[in-house]
Amino acid sequence: MEIQVYDTTLRDGTQGEDVNFSAEEKLRVAKRLDEVGIHFIEGGWPGANPRDDRFFELAASYGFKHSTIVAFGSTRRPGVSAGKDANLKAIAESGARAACIFGKSWDLHVETVMENTREENLAMISESVIYLAKRGFPVYYDAEHFFDGYKSDPDYALATVMEAVSAGARCITLCDTNGGTLPHEIERIVSVVRNTVKAPIGIHTHNDCGLAVANTIAAVSAGAVMVQGTINGYGERCGNADLTSIIPILQLKMGYRLVSDESMARLRSLSRFVCEAANMVPQKNRPFVGDSAFAHKGGIHVSAVQKAPKAYEHMEPELVGNRRRVLVSDLSGKSNVEYKAWELGIDLNEGANGADVKKIVSDIKRMENQGYQFDAAEGSFELFLKRKVGQFVPRFELLSFLVTIRKEKDRPCFAEATVKIAVDGQERFTAAEGQGPVGALDNALRRALHKFYPQALDSMRLKDFKVRVLDGRDGTAARVKVFIESGNQDRTWKTIGVSEDIIEASWQALADSFHYLLSKTPQE
Length: 524
Fold this sequence. Notes:
Layout: E1 4-7, H1 23-35, E2 40-44, H2 50-60, E3 68-74, H3 86-92, E4 98-104, H4 107-113, H5 118-134, E5 139-144, H6 146-152, H7 154-167, E6 171-176, H8 183-196, E7 201-205, H9 212-221, E8 226-229, H10 243-253, H11 261-264, H12 267-278, E9 295-296, H13 299-307, E10 325-326, H14 334-344, H15 357-370, H16 378-388, E11 397-408, E12 411-423, E13 426-434, H17 437-450, H18 454-458, E14 461-469, E15 480-487, E16 492-499, H19 502-519
Parallel strand pairs: 1-2, 1-8, 2-3, 3-4, 4-5, 5-6, 6-7, 7-8, 9-10
Antiparallel strand pairs: 11-12, 12-13, 14-15, 15-16
C-alpha cells in the first residue's frame, strides 16, 4: 500500500523559532525534495509576504519531476464572498498545481476566537473549496484543531469535514494543531472519521507532547493514507512531525511504500541539506539520520556489534544513508580501539610485537579523566593512535611561539603572535596579527607552513572554536578543553587540547588540526 508524503517544511517549518529560508533557498530545498520523490511540497502562503510570492514565481518556471507544488491558505473570511476574498484569489493566481486550505473544526475557535456562527463557518469551508475546485485546483483540506474539536463536539467537527468533502476536497487532513492529543486518541478518532467520511484521510501532527511521530503512525494504522510533516521536525513551538523518522518507520518497519529505495538512502543527506539551508545545527541524536543514531561508545556494545550488528542496531544504517560509528572514550574497551584502528586503516599488528591495546585503552581512560574527549575530536584521536603505534610522521616541529595582547586607545584589543617551526631541518620564523590570540597563532602558523605546503593550506579553514571549563570551582586556574573544527573541500575534522592554560590548550588543538591535514596530504 502506498502512503503519500506531504512536506510542509517550506511553510509550517518556517514558523519554527530560528528557522528561515529565502525564496531562493526554498526553491533549492524544493528541488531536493523533488529528487527524493516527495509527493506534495507546500511552498508557502501566496499573498502573505513577498518571499512566498517570489518562491511561487520561481517554482512555476522549474519542471518538477515527482512533486506537486501546493499553495496554502485559509478559507474565505466571514461575510466575504469567495470570489472577493484576497487570500483565495492569491492562491488561484500563484501558479501552483494544487491548493490546500484550512478551516475551523473546533467550536471554541468558531464561536469564541472568530466570533463567528457555526453555519457561516460551514459555508466558508464549502464555498472556498468550490471556488478553487472550479478553477482547476485539486483541493486538499486541512481540518485545523480537528482532534480538540472532535473531543468538544464530535458531531460538529465531523460536519465541517463532510462539508469539505461534499464541496469536492480531494483529501481531508486531520490536524492535531495544539499537539496535545495522545496516540490512542488519534487512532480511535481517525477510525471514526475514516468510517464516516467518503474521502482519503491525511494526518498533520505537532510535537508539543513529544508524540508527533507516534501520533502519525497511529493515524496510518487507523487508515490515514497521507502524512504531513517537515524535514527534521522543524515547526512552530516544539515542531511538527519529523518526516526523517516517519518515512523510514512506515516503509522499513511497517511495509508501506512511500519513496524508492534509492531515495530512502538519500534521507540523511536530505536532512543535512535542509539543516544547512535553514542555518540550523544538525541534531546528533536525531533518529535514523543523526550522527549518533548508529554510534556505539560502550565497550560491550562494540564487541557485540563486531560479531552481529543487529545485537545493538535495529536496522542497517546504510538504508537511510547513515553509517555505523564507534566512539572512543573512557567507556571504551579493546573492541573500540581495534574497530577504530580498522576504520582508520591503522595496523595495530605492525612492528615486532604489535601494539599493546590494553595500554592504549588505559592511556585513553587516563587522558579522558584529565579532560580529553576523543569521541568529539576524532582528528586528535587518530593522531593519538598513530603516535602510540609509531605510525605518526610529523610534518613540522614547534620550536617556540610568543603571543601578546595589545590594547590601544581607540582600537579594540588585538593579538600578535610569532611562531618558530622546523620542517625537515629548515627553520621558519613568522609573525602575524589576529582578532584574538588563537586567531593570531593560526595566522602565524599558517604563514610559516605555507612555504612548505601551499596547496594543502590554501583550502584549509578554521570553522569553529569552542572552550569548555572543566571545573569552574577553580576560577581562573580551572583546567579547560578547547575544541577546534577545521575543514577543506574534502573533509571536516575536529581536534582537542586540554590544559590549565587556555593558550596552551588552544595550541594543542590548533597544532593537531594542522598535523591531521598534513597527514592526509602527499609530500609536495
